[in-house]
Amino acid sequence: xxxxxxxxxxxxxxxxxxxxxxxxxxxxFAATAAEMRIxxxxxxxxxxxxLVSGVFEWLGAAGMLIPSVRRAAGVGxxxxxxxxxxANVFMLQQAEVFHIAPxxxxxxxxxxxxxxxxxxxxxxSATRLWRAT
Length: 133
Description:
- By secondary structure, the chain is an all-alpha fold.
- It is 79% helix and 0% strand.
- The chain has one domain (2-128).
- The protein has helices spanning 2-30, 32-37, 46-64, 70-93, 95-98, 102-124.
């Protein structure tokens, strides 16, 4: 019974991570200007970076659906989250500009750690995720 419960939790994590990046990738294109605002000023070509990171989010989400590349997709999504962390730190440093309470942005950074863990957990051994016990 414990294995089924763990498998159900892992499936839920998998679906959450997939939707997070599939929907997040969409917003890189639907709300490009808003996404560009959070780019630190030292990042070159902010428009291109927003679009490229949106494509990478979609590629990672799509890769999660293919068992033979699922682990690689997870590694890519993990690295992508790490790569975009400076934008979230920049938002926290400039919270008043974004009109967001600092505690919300601090929680967002904490959530990134949880997201990283969910990516690893749901994609590392996910080839067995959908098999019956």
